[in-house]
Design goal:
By secondary structure, the chain is an all-alpha fold. It is built from eight helices and no strands. The two termini are 15 Å apart. About 2% of the residues have low confidence.
Length: 226
């Protein structure tokens, strides 16, 4: 069971950690809107360099953290090894410099999140639920014809470039809702809020018919709620 998020911390170091979590949370909310500018995972420079700066600065406040090695760490190491091997096996293919920054930002974000405490991870997940709820509201407004989509052939995309990206993102967010609902036992108001967000996100998933999103959400919910 996890307690509700609390942002009050004493001391300059604790205040720095709190500010970093807040900044990271707001960046998670704003990040999907970068797809309106381009098509990549981090399609605008502010997202890439913002993550590098934020996570690099935040790591200064997490020097004492010593997380244990988990199963996802091995998968990440295997993926990095695959990427390095691919570069050496194809020496003629010059790697995209901006793409290296993108993957570096994603890797640094992963390392930073692994160094957070349980309560701080909880706070980041709350921001992710907020982000998913915002994207679901945008999708619903597109479904009713109140907002235009970002794709010529699909009516519902959220702020992303196509519905596939939206479906994957909402699948992650609805799974996070399920995990928070299961973990938090002491606050009925919070559980009701998370349940409402899960229904909203689930409704958006159903409306635009992303079968991959449905499968991902079902598999994730089975893991966290089973």
């Amino acid at each position: 069971m996890v307690g509700l998020p609390r942002f009050q911390r004493s001391g300059a170091r604790g205040q720095g950690r709190t500010a970093t979590i807040l900044l990271l949370g707001f960046m998670l909310v704003l990040l999907p809107f970068s797809f309106q500018i381009g098509t990549g995972v981090f399609s605008d420079a502010w997202a890439v360099f913002g993550l590098v700066l934020l996570c690099g600065t935040g790591s200064l406040f997490r020097l004492a953290a010593n997380p244990r090695v988990a199963v996802p760490d091995y998968f990440l190491a295997a993926f990095i090894l695959y990427g390095i091997t691919h570069i050496f096996l194809h020496p003629g293919a010059s790697p995209n410099q901006y793409g290296l920054w993108e993957w570096g930002a994603a890797l640094l974000l992963y390392v930073f999140l692994r160094r957070l405490t349980g309560t701080e991870k909880f706070q980041v997940l709350v921001f992710l639920v907020l982000s998913g709820s915002i994207q679901s509201l945008i999708a619903l407004r597109q479904w009713f014809g109140w907002f235009g989509s970002n794709h010529a052939y699909f009516e519902i995309t959220g702020s992303f470039g196509n519905p596939g990206q939206l479906g994957g993102y909402l699948a992650v967010c609805v799974v996070v809702c399920g995990g928070l609902f299961v973990q938090v036992k002491g606050s009925l108001k919070f559980r009701f809020t998370v349940l409402t967000a899960a229904v909203l996100i689930g409704l958006a998933l159903l409306l635009f018919g992303s079968r991959a999103g449905w499968m991902a959400a079902a598999a994730g919910m089975g893991m966290v709620c089973g």
